Amino acid sequence: MISDILINIVRFFLLIFLQVLVLDQLEISGPVNGYFNAYLYILFILMLPVNINKLFLLFLSFITGLTIDLFTGTPGMHASASLVIAFLRPSFLHVIAPREGYESTVRLTMQGMGGSTFLVYAGVMTFVHHLSLLLIEAFNFLNFFDLLLRVLTCSVFTMVLIVMSQILSQRSKGGAES
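RE: above sequence
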């Protein structure tokens, strides 16, 4: 129990650090600017325990998004988008759960859920987060197809990083056990 708490604390700081000091500093200039932004910090919300209290999930998601907002100067945008996926996460996990449901000890990772189930879970949550975030940023539907293209490209870019992080964490755990 205490080790799970420590793992989540380390994961929080690591993902915030990566988001603020690495991913937010990448600048792609030209006509594709704004189409390849990765928001890897949502992995913290996605990997929280399956049996976490819903109010605590909302609180942690709000704190995560607010922390990103403080570092990026986006007043409440990331907090709002993080709350959206935190609110939808329990229902969506229930929809994609096996018939007998998830055990309380299952880890919401590629290894714990299975590759295809994790990809569906992370993909849908990433798309919903990015759609919420970019809709709040745009605050209109005038360039709907451009907005949708941005959501799709940012979601794909984020999913590539999420999958890479899952593969790297599996390898590091596998290498440590050998």
